[in-house]
From TrEMBL:
<dbReference type="InterPro" id="IPR006501">
    <property type="entry name" value="Pectinesterase_inhib_dom"/>
</dbReference>
<dbReference type="Pfam" id="PF04043">
    <property type="entry name" value="PMEI"/>
</dbReference>
<protein>
    <recommendedName>
        <fullName>pectinesterase</fullName>
        <ecNumber>3.1.1.11</ecNumber>
    </recommendedName>
</protein>
<dbReference type="InterPro" id="IPR051955">
    <property type="entry name" value="PME_Inhibitor"/>
</dbReference>
<keyword id="KW-0732">Signal</keyword>
<keyword id="KW-0325">Glycoprotein</keyword>
<comment type="similarity">
    <text>In the C-terminal section; belongs to the pectinesterase family.</text>
</comment>
<dbReference type="InterPro" id="IPR035513">
    <property type="entry name" value="Invertase/methylesterase_inhib"/>
</dbReference>
<dbReference type="GO" id="GO:0030599">
    <property type="term" value="F:pectinesterase activity"/>
</dbReference>
<comment type="similarity">
    <text>In the N-terminal section; belongs to the PMEI family.</text>
</comment>
<dbReference type="GO" id="GO:0004857">
    <property type="term" value="F:enzyme inhibitor activity"/>
</dbReference>
<keyword id="KW-1133">Transmembrane helix</keyword>
<feature type="transmembrane region" description="Helical">
    <location>
        <begin position="35"/>
        <end position="57"/>
    </location>
</feature>
<keyword id="KW-1015">Disulfide bond</keyword>
<feature type="domain" description="Pectinesterase inhibitor">
    <location>
        <begin position="79"/>
        <end position="232"/>
    </location>
</feature>
<keyword id="KW-0812">Transmembrane</keyword>
<keyword id="KW-0472">Membrane</keyword>
Length: 259
């Protein structure tokens, strides 16, 4: 504030001297020089302050990340571990939940949920080629072939449901994770789980024996992963929607939902 007032003062001096129209006046030159020095100092000072703020912000971000990555026993890692355990504890397959999400080091429940959706999608994409492969070698007759063809469509539907759920959580914004969107996601994931079960039931109904068992083995992980995703989102809602159990620097509500 002082330097701003000083600047105004010099401005007045400058204007006053200009009014006298005496450009060669040494006191005018002196005033101008002082004005230039003041402005330069002010600009430098402002730049320095802004640079310090940016520098400090980057530094604290870095040290945060470094802490999380390099000290596995530090409190922040411990809390992300606790959050993962608490989410996976709510699933029917805690082991596959923990092993598929453990490497993420994410401490935000919504991030972990998004990751679980990606894991589910990847596994479903992997499984999607299985029915065709079985059709090529199965000789269980028309019934089995039809059931396998149904499986292909059902797995495709499950993929669409999980993919739609992922599309819901893109980017960061202010609108938050609304209850109706969460309900949409739960509906799609339930349907994706039912699709897979319907495929297995269909094979069982046509008495495909070995083919059904083989499909059950092939779909074991994808069934478990989708079931885990469903339990995780339910747990997040139970934990208070989107605002509980996260470290303060994570903004759970800052998830914009596009679906
Ligand atoms: C897992 O859930 C059970 C109850 O369902 C609870 O007793 C236990 O403390 C939970 N464990 C963790 C690590 O959250
Ligand atoms: C994909 O499935 C095959 C067997 O069908 C399995 O060997 C492979 O590990 C799976 N890949 C992933 C990423 O799950
Ligand atoms: C998921 O949806 C997006 C956009 O709707 C699409 O571009 C992408 O191909 C889909 N992925 C799969 C695996 O279906």
């Amino acid at each position: 504030m002082d330097s701003i007032n000083a600047l105004k003062g010099y401005n007045k001096v400058g204007e006053g001297n200009l009014d006298t129209n005496n450009n060669n006046n040494p006191s005018l030159r002196k005033a101008r020089n002082r004005l230039i020095i003041s402005i330069t100092s002010l600009v430098l000072l402002t730049t320095l302050i802004i640079a310090s703020i940016i520098g400090y912000a980057c530094l604290s971000d870095e040290s945060e990340d470094t802490r999380e990555n390099e000290n596995p026993n530090s409190a922040s890692t411990w809390s992300s571990d606790q959050i993962l355990k608490s989410l996976c504890n709510a699933t029917q397959h805690p082991n596959s939940c923990l092993s598929s999400l453990a490497n993420s080091h994410a401490s935000d429940p919504v991030e972990l949920f998004k990751l679980s959706l990606k894991v589910s999608l990847e596994e479903l994409l992997n499984v999607s080629s299985v029915p065709k492969r079985m059709m090529a070698k199965a000789n269980g007759g028309k019934g089995v072939e039809t059931a396998l063809r149904d499986c292909e469509g059902l797995i495709g539907d499950a993929i669409d449901g999980v993919n739609k759920s992922i599309e819901c959580f893109v980017g960061v914004g202010e609108e938050g994770l609304s209850e109706s969107k969460v309900n949409d996601v739960r509906t799609w994931l339930s349907a994706a789980l039912t699709d897979q079960q319907t495929c297995l039931d269909g094979l069982e109904e046509v008495g495909s024996g070995g083919v059904g068992d083989e499909m059950k083995v092939a779909m074991k992980d994808s069934v478990e992963f989708v079931s885990n995703s469903l339990a995780i989102v339910a747990r997040i809602v139970e934990m208070g929607g989107t605002s509980v159990s996260a470290p303060p620097h994570r903004k759970l509500l800052g998830i914009s939902v596009k679906c």
